[in-house]
Write a structure and sequence with these properties.
Blueprint (H helix, E strand, L loop, with lengths): L7 H26 L2 E11 L25 E4 L1 H4 L8 E4 L5 E7 L7 E5 L4 H7 L2 E8 L1 H5 L2
Parallel strand pairs: 1-5, 2-4
Antiparallel strand pairs: 1-6, 2-5, 3-4, 3-6
Length: 145
C-alpha cells in the first residue's frame, strides 16, 4: 500500500497561512478591546438657538449641522488631548446610549462637556450643571471596531 505524504512546500505554505491567521486575529482582538478611559467632568447642556451662540446656532465647530434629537456633545479643548476628538463616542453616566463629539467649547473651559438638547430650552435648564462620569475608547480603539 502506498502512503502519500504532503510535500515540504505544501507544509511550509500551510504553516505560513496559520501564522498569518493567528497574527490577524490577535491584531483584531487588540484593536476591538481598546483602551477605555473614564473621567469625572462638569456637564452642562446647550441648545441650537441664537440666544446661546451666534447667527448660525446649528453649525458646530467642525462644520457639523446639529439637529434636534441628535445625541451630540461639545467638549472642552483640554479633553481633545485626552482622546475625545471629533466623532468620538462617549457614554455619560445617568443618560442612555452613546453621544458623539461634534462640537468644541471655548478655550477658557476645562474638564467640561456640554450636552446638546436640540431646541428644548426647558430640558437644558432642568439639566443644569452636574458632575458626571464619562467613558470613551481612545480614537485608535474606535477605528478598530
Amino acid at each position: 500500500m502506498w502512503t502519500i505524504l504532503p510535500s515540504h512546500d505544501f507544509l511550509v505554505n500551510r504553516h505560513r497561512d496559520w501564522v498569518f491567521i493567528f497574527a490577524a486575529t490577535l491584531t483584531l482582538l487588540h484593536c476591538s478591546s481598546g483602551t477605555e478611559r473614564t473621567l469625572i467632568v462638569t456637564a452642562t447642556a446647550f441648545n441650537s438657538i441664537q440666544a446661546q451662540t451666534d447667527s448660525t446656532p446649528a453649525l458646530a465647530a467642525w462644520g457639523d449641522i446639529l439637529t434636534p434629537g441628535m445625541k451630540a456633545v461639545a467638549v472642552s479643548r483640554d479633553l481633545l488631548d485626552e482622546g475625545l476628538s471629533h466623532g468620538s463616542k462617549v457614554g455619560i453616566d445617568g443618560l442612555p446610549g452613546e453621544y458623539v463629539v461634534l462640537d468644541k467649547m471655548a478655550k477658557r473651559m476645562q474638564q467640561k462637556i456640554d450636552i446638546y438638547m436640540g431646541d428644548d430650552v426647558d430640558a437644558a435648564r432642568d439639566w443644569g450643571k452636574k458632575e458626571v462620569r464619562i467613558r470613551w475608547k481612545t480614537r485608535k480603539a474606535q477605528e478598530g471596531e
